[in-house]
Structures are given as structure tokens and as C-alpha cells.
Amino acid sequence: QVQLVESGGGLVQPGGSLRLSCAASGIILSMNGMGWYRQAPGKQRELVVGITAGGRINSQDSLKGRFTISRDNAKNTMYLQMRNLQPEDTAMYFCNAPHTGWGPGEYWGQGTQVTVSS
To answer: What does the pLDDT look like over 28-37, one tens digit per residue?
Structure first.
């Protein structure tokens, strides 16, 4: 049984930073890749950044430089480091696997809320 568990969301002021974590069980992230998606109220879910098993990274051009994906293979955990957060980054953030770069994979986490507000 595959489980993806996100953590690290919360309330942050504009310009602040957060690091989200996605701990996986039942699937090896380094062999399958993983992506971070987000969904704001009233909007479609969108890819933030993903990394394939081969290490290729797909991300929104508008987020490059602020959002960075990384992984700890020993912990089977992926991270999303978010910097200079803005109110428009407010959304529910989900991890998803596997990630091939061709759309979302089969498995989703439950999501973690990120709210950027002063």
C-alpha cells in the first residue's frame, strides 16, 4: 500500500520561507520520481515542480529560483523548499508519485495547507 504524507505547511508572512516534506511508504521515490502540485481555491491543481527517477526536473518557469525540490533517498522523503513566498502562493500543496514528466502519477498525499498572509 502506497502512502504519501506531507507536512510542513502553515501560515507565513509575505517574503517568508517554508519547507514541505513528503514521506513515502510502499513506493521508492528515487526509483519512481515525485512531484509537488498545488491547488488554490477555485483553481485547477497545477504542477509546481517534479523530479523524475533519472533526476530530470520539471517546474513552472514562474517559480524557478524560488521553489526547489530535493530528496533524501535514505529517508525516502522529498522536500519542497519555498522562498520569498507571496500571497498568490497560498494553496493546498500535494505530493504525487510516480513522476515521469507526463502528467500526475497514480498516488496522492492528503495535502498540506500553505497560507501566505500578513
So the answer is: 988 899 999 9
Distances (CA, A) of 88 to 8, 23, 70, 79, 92: 18, 26, 23, 20, 12
Residue with cell 535514505: 74
Q: How confident is the model at residue 61 (pLDDT cuts 50, 70, 90)?
A: confident
Cross-sheet strand order for the sheet of 18-25: 3-7, 18-25, 77-82, 67-72
Cell (9 digits) for 57: 526536473
DSSP assignment string, 25-73: ESS-HHHH-EEEEEE-TTS--EEEEEE-TT--EEE-GGGTTTEEEEEET
Average per-residue pLDDT for the chain = 94
Burial string for 1-15 (b: 16+ CB within 10 Å, else e) reads: eeebebebbeebeee
